[in-house]
Request: fold
Amino acid sequence: MPEDSQDAAATGEGEAQDTGTSATPGPAGEAELQALVDKLTAEKNDLTDLLLRKQAELENFRKRTQREREEFLQHATADLIYALLPTLDAFDRALAHRTEGAPEQFYQGLELIHKELLEALGRAGLTSFETVGRDFDPHLHHAVEMVETDEHRDHEILEEMQRGYRLKKRLLRPAIVKVAVAKAKSGHTE
Reply:
């Protein structure tokens, strides 16, 4: 029997039977329990809201960090490619002005290097655009000379002095061009 009383004391069964009280609380106890349930429910809701806000903040942080990383890489790529444009210009000039007596293999080597450089930069998103024969667009072209002529359309590009480039869809460098302007017609009659 001593073991039975120890088990009953450990589980708390003996106390409820000894005091003669029932397991259901009275009206005052129910109000206290309901207040506690309401308080804990409100606390749970507050913590759930806080958790959702923190998860949203974390997701926004991840997106912002990814976007900033991509923008940094785009700017770094643009800066590097922009720094290489004078080298491309030098290749264009060297290939356009071949010197008499220079070995043909030399120019073939230059053409090969130029082609490979253009292909590598093309994979990074660099493209040039056509200018000669097209209409002047101030968003794409920089006019350094205007030539009065009746032989070409007004604002037609006559000559490309320096090639223009885009990096992906963004203008990296405008083309430097010579533009046709219609001759002024004399309106004076005397």
Summary: Confidence is low (pLDDT under 50) at residues 8-20. The chain has four helices and six strands. The longest strand covers residues 141-149.
